[in-house]
Amino acid sequence: MADPVVASHLSLVLKAPPTISSPSQFLLQQHSKPMASSLNSAASLRLFASSSSSSSSAAARLSLRSTSLSFSSSLKSLAFSTLSRHKRGSAVSVSSTGGFSSVASPKCAASDPDQLKSAREDIKELLKSKFCHSILVRLGWHDAGTYNKNIEEWPRRGGANGSLRFEVELKHAANAGLVNALNLLQHIKDKYSGVTYADLFQLASATAIEEAGGPKIPMKYGRVDVSGPNECPEEGRLPAAGPPSPADHLREVFYRMGLNDKEIVALSGAHTLGRSRPDRSGWGKPETKYTKDGPGAPGGQSWTVQWLKFDNSYFKDIKAKRDEDLLVLPTDAVLFEDPSFKVYAEKYAEDQETFFKDYAEAHAKLSNLGAKFNPPEGIVLDDGPR
Questions:
Q1: Which of 193, 211, 236 is the last residue of a domain?
Q2: Do residue 250 and residue 349 come from a single domain?
Q3: 77 CB contacts (<8 Å, ≥6 apart)?
Q4: 2, 67, 124, 294: least buried by Cβ within 10 Å?
Q5: Which pLDDT belongs to residue 384?
């Protein structure tokens, strides 16, 4: 093959659902329910490399001239652009217009700390205008929640590696509607190209909890992205909302991740945020007295009255069982039925401080599952308490 130029072309057709962004949650899934719409876009990749014929100066004169992604989509402004660094230090720029990329991207080095801090501020503004706390939590959890502790190889083990940005994983039934979360974050990814997808998803999730009044999550960053859709996990690793044996199902899924009963119950408490929408999960009412007027897109059924406030009311309301307009899934009810789960659920219903402490630890642990960090110790944003 001729020396200076390597070119490749890749086309994919995706179709994004027309629904607008709205909150949804991690445990609210049915594996048998197909995604309402497939994703649709066209993408082409062109890679050009040039080098000198002089061996003495080849390394200094080697340049990677450009990498471009161009694609179109019916989903408004669903575009991601990245500026990443190869392990050898070559610069790669990706420009995009009007669509979501499902093509492979270069493996990234660690995210830039300053860009992470700036991206967090933009996420805070997004939360204020879109009230999208719950769907951002769900996005981070679903990227991390595919982790299998019994598989050592990265990225086959799954986990927080940015794989959820690819069509093949977005089409998993458990991820129905999460294209809306990608749509919400696309302009932030464009703006802060030095932040990996894996870090952005977890940053958005933790920020959403904190901005809703929840605890400060002890996060670290520097997660490396998977490079292509062939590295996505197989379908079926995320929990369902109404399995025949809820307690057994929760333990099967979360024990596979390396989490225990206390962490299962604490993480379930994140249902204090958000709503279930029957068009996405098959669960909940189309609207209730608590959701008919929003904020954000109206409709759905919430677990709590103030479904944009992070507190321990989820546990209080499940225990009380006195409001038909509040949702209780089989995987929620079992927290007060299973003897081991009940110990923690009762404690959290009475003691919000203990719930916040245990939740923050569990959330941080979940966000690190399966991740490969560069640098290996990760990046901590040293900005003090919230």
A1: 236
A2: yes
A3: 98, 183, 186, 187
A4: 2
A5: 54
The one catalytic residue in 9, 31, 133, 142 is 142
Q: Which two tokens stand for residue 35?
A: 């995604």
What CATH number is associated with residue 300?
A: 1.10.420.10
User: How many beta carbons lie within 10 A of that of residue 236, not counting itself?
Assistant: 12
β-bridge partners, 71:
43
350 assigned to some structural domain: yes
Best mean pLDDT range from 100-109, 116-125, 375-384:
116-125
> Do 130 and 184 belong together in one domain?
yes
Q: Which residues are 43's β-sheet partners?
A: 71
How many CB atoms sit inside 10 A of residue 321's CB?
11
Report which of 208, 332, 338, 339 is spatially closest to residue 271, judged by C-alpha positions.
332
The dihedral built from the CA positions of residue 160, 104, 174 and 255, taken in this order, carries a sign that is negative
Q: Who has greater pLDDT, 280 or 153?
A: 153
Q: What is the pLDDT of residue 214?
A: 98
The pLDDT value recorded for residue 278 is 85
Separation between Cα atoms, residue 92 and residue 83, nearest integer Å: 6
Q: Which residue in the block uniquely carries the two structure tokens 């794989």?
A: 163
Q: Could you report the per-residue pLDDT of 6-51, keeping only the tens digit for each?
A: 333 333 333 333 333 333 344 444 333 333 333 333 333 222 232 3
Q: Catalytic: 142?
A: yes
Domain assignment present for 131: yes
What is the residue range of 358's domain?
Answer: 246-363
pLDDT at residue 74, as a whole number = 35
* Number of compact structural domains in the chain: 2
Element (H, E) at 180: helix 179-191
From CA 223, how far away is CA 366, in angstroms rounded? 13
Any domain includes 32: no
The domain that holds 195 is classified in CATH as 1.10.520.10
Interatomic CA distance for residues 318 and 215, integer angstroms: 21
